[in-house]
Amino acid sequence: MTSLEPFPTDWQTALVLVAHPDDPEYGMAAAVARWTGEGRRVVYALASSGERGIEGMTPAECGPLREAEQRASAKIVGVDEVEFWGFPDSDIHNTPELRAKIAETVERIAPQVILSLYGGPEWAPGQPNQRDHMEFAAAVLEAYDTLSESGSDEIPAWLFENGPAATHAVDVDVQFEVAVRSLAAHDRYLSVLDPDTPVLDQARAQIDRATAPRDGSDGVRIAGFELKRTR
Description:
Layout: E1 5-6, E2 13-18, H1 29-37, E3 41-46, H2 59-76, E4 81-84, H3 96-109, E5 113-117, E6 122-124, E7 127-128, H4 131-150, E8 158-162, E9 168-171, H5 176-184, H6 187-193, H7 199-210, E10 222-230
Parallel strand pairs: 1-9, 2-3, 2-5, 3-4, 5-8
Antiparallel strand pairs: 6-7, 8-10, 9-10
Helix pairs in contact: 2-5, 3-4, 5-7
Pfam family, one: PIG-L
Keywords: Zinc
GO molecular function, one term: hydrolase activity, acting on carbon-nitrogen (but not peptide) bonds, in linear amides
């Protein structure tokens, strides 16, 4: 399919760890739809409720709305387990408290695969990453390493980041439209983010970029993941 390695298939449960609502939908949802369609379990855990993410709305209004949009979005791709940890949106840091929550969740869910956010400073030249994303990704890596050093029986076999330096690929040609609908479920968020562009058009453009065929993929859409840790 592509010069990238195929994504592992010898697993049953994946844990998606992200900072905000809509983070899973920009690059992972197409792959998640494929996996749930194969009968695999995928769990979403979000550090925050994205309560500062919609201009003109108070956190008290915005947080519940964004949680509801995330749950609806997850359901479209077959994910029924979604949890929110209550860390402050736009003020996420790689703290002992965050690392402890990550470790507790990993041990409780017992996944074989972790999917996390890209932690690098830029997606591409001139396209900076968000600080929340970088801090959260660093916390995930550190929590994984601590679990590994402790000899925990629940350490997942693979930890991937969804980012530009992919090492592994998932064929998501069939899942393109469902991924578009999943992102479009963040309707209020997207409609405020870009009021001049219909939400469905925004979602289609984003998923088109995120799953664009790469060299060697024979025109097949893929979701790419970078392997950061394995055991």
